[in-house]
Amino acid sequence: AGSLFVACVWAVHPMACESVAWVAERNNVLAFFFGLLSLRCYVMGRSIVGGVLPSTLFFILALLSKPFAVAWTPIFVVLELLGGRDRLAGSPAAAPSGGMRPVAVRLIPILLVAIGITALGLSGYREVYRLPPGGTWFNALLTDLGLFARYILNTFAPFWLSTFYGTDEIRSI
User: Fold this and answer.
1) CA neighbours within 13 Å on the CB side: how many for 134?
2) Residues 42, 52 contacting (CB under 8 angstroms)
3) Average pLDDT, consecutive stretches of 10 residues, N- to C-terminus, the chain (173 residues)
């Protein structure tokens, strides 16, 4: 009942429309879609061809849609730590163990892809260095705190929504 309520509130909340209403935000929907397909293939497939390969390919597509899809990685890790596919099916023999289970080897391709895309993204930041808003990291933090407060306010009281949230750089307290 609680999950249904949260889903209904999210569906009608004005801030949730961005991903489906703006063509520039379709990357969120694509990353989520391919992430879910990756998770489904990972859980449902038992073999390398039926599970690991399609799961890794869908994970790569999710990362190509939006690099932040690397956040799916902890879900795969926690799934294995909790017992994997067999535990989800209710098999009592799949209790979590202290050692490395053979099935956890299925994580290796996904972890390698996640590490690779993270390294690639971080190397891009090293190549293009620009000053943060306001000139220093402290001023950038002050500016970001103001933006964060605005998003929190819009989440709970979505009366002042806009298509553009311009902000001035905060240069001092």
Assistant:
1) 16
2) yes
3) 77 65 79 91 77 90 90 88 69 51 74 89 68 69 79 80 67 65
